[in-house]
Write a structure and sequence with these properties.
By secondary structure, the chain is mainly alpha-helical. It has ten helices and no strands.
Length: 213
């Protein structure tokens, strides 16, 4: 009986969180009230407060849940035997596919938390930084093994790598980039190739000079 009540409570809590995602994504966090979440979830206004103290706590919960999934995924990827480039591709795939299959969740995370430098983003800087640090560890390990250039800064690469992906997500969220299956797959390749391969063309010998033998 107790297990049944616990399961029911967990289902109700999930129902409210899922409704909050839809409302926050559609209207924006600051334009919403707790009553809007209750209406979307089809529950009484007071029931929301039974599980959450405020809409801020709802957003915090949504962020922590989703961000921890990403941190766990990066850790699992890093524990594998793949090359640095392959690991970065796997990380890019996870983040892009997270938007691909849960666009509303990722819209809320990007718009209302990670880009909200003066509110929620500042409160979660440590967790946000943990993702950069995890990516930097992948780069550093590959650098030590000679896969990447020895003078690169893993922290800077991680910043560029995640920043590029976040800009892609923003483009899809705001409709400035085509959000198609082909574009999602292409984006994974482009991000990794740009970061790992760079953008500078191979140098060619000057005219009239023979290449070294």
């Amino acid at each position: 009986m107790a297990n049944g009540r616990a399961a029911h409570a967990a289902d109700r809590r999930r129902q409210i969180l899922d409704a909050a995602v839809r409302v926050f994504a559609r209207r924006g966090f600051y334009a919403c009230r707790v009553s809007d979440v209750a209406d979307e979830a089809g529950v009484a206004y007071g029931l929301v407060y039974h599980y959450f103290d405020s809409k801020e706590e709802i957003l915090d919960t949504l962020f922590v849940e989703r961000w921890q999934l990403m941190l766990d995924a990066i850790e699992a990827i890093d524990a594998g035997e793949a090359s640095g480039r392959e690991k970065l591709y796997a990380v890019a795939s996870f983040i892009i596919d997270s938007y691909r299959y849960s666009p509303d969740v990722m819209k809320v995370i990007i718009v209302e938390v990670t880009r909200a430098a003066h509110s929620f983003g500042r409160e979660h800087l440590e967790q946000i930084r943990a993702a950069y640090d995890s990516i930097a560890r992948i780069v550093e390990a590959a650098r030590r093994e000679g896969q990447f250039k020895p003078h690169i800064s893993p922290d800077f690469v991680a910043l560029c790598f995640y920043g590029a992906i976040e800009q892609l997500l923003s483009g899809w969220i705001f409709g400035t980039l085509p959000a198609t299956e082909a574009e999602f797959e292409r984006a994974k390749e482009l991000v990794v190739e740009t970061i790992c391969g760079g953008i500078e063309a191979p140098r060619t010998p000057r005219s009239g000079l023979l290449p070294p033998q």
